[in-house]
Design goal:
Length: 257
Amino acid sequence: MPEKRLREDDCTGTARSIPRFRRRLFMLVKTLIAAGVALATSQAHALQILDYGWEDGVGTILGSFGNLADATNVSGPQSGSDGDSSYGVSGARSGSRFLHVAEAPLSGTPQAYLAFVTGLQAGDLVSASFWGYDSSAGTNPSLRIWGHYADAADINSYVKSAGGSNTYTDGSGWSELSNTWTFDGGATDGLVIEARLYSMTVGGNDRTDFWIDDLRISAPDHATIQFAAAVPEPESYALMLAGLGMMGVIARRRSRR
C-alpha cells in the first residue's frame, strides 16, 4: 500500500496553528492573573479617613483618665497657665473652633480620650494625628499621642496599653503628633486614641492648660470611628465621597476591559 504523503499546505496549517495556540494560552493566563488581582483587591479592606476639628461648637472629648479638667470647645484667643507662668494661644490652628483641656490639680499623667475605634480585626492598621499647642520649647507643658485597648461597649474600660509615639509637641506653637497602630486582636476590638498631658510640677499655680485641634483618624471601612461629635464634619464627607468616586472609576475601567 503506498505511503500517504502530507500535502505542503497541511504542514503549513499545522505550523501556523502553534503560534495561535501560544497566543491563546498567553491570553488565558493573563486573564486568570487579572481575575486573581481583581478578587484580591475586592477582598482587601477599603480605608476610611475621618476628620474632627471641633467646628460643631459642642463636642469636646469622649472621656478621660486622671486629673483632667475643663474640657471645653473654644474659639478665639485663649489664655492659660503652665504652673509657673501665664501664656496663651491666638486661636484655632484651622477653622474657628478647637479643644481646651487642663490638668488640675497637677498629679500623674492625665489623658483626654479624643476618638474611639471599634470593630477592629487582628492585623488592622489604625492611624491617628492631631495638633497640639505648646510654646515652651524643650520643657513641659507638652502633649503626646497615645492609645489603649478597651471593650467596644465601654470606652472607660481598660484592657492594656496600645503604646504610642515618643514624639512630644516641640514648643514652636502648633505642632502635629501622629502614630500608627497594628491591632493585635486579643480579648477586645476597641482602640482609644488619647492625648497625654505633661505638666510643670513647680510654681504656685496648681494647674496647666492645653489646646488641641485638627484630629484625623484612618481605619479599615469595617471599623467604626467615634468622635465627641454626633456626625463627621464636612471635610470627612468630602474624603469619603472622593474615595467612593475613585472606587467607581476603577470599577468602570475594569468593566470596559
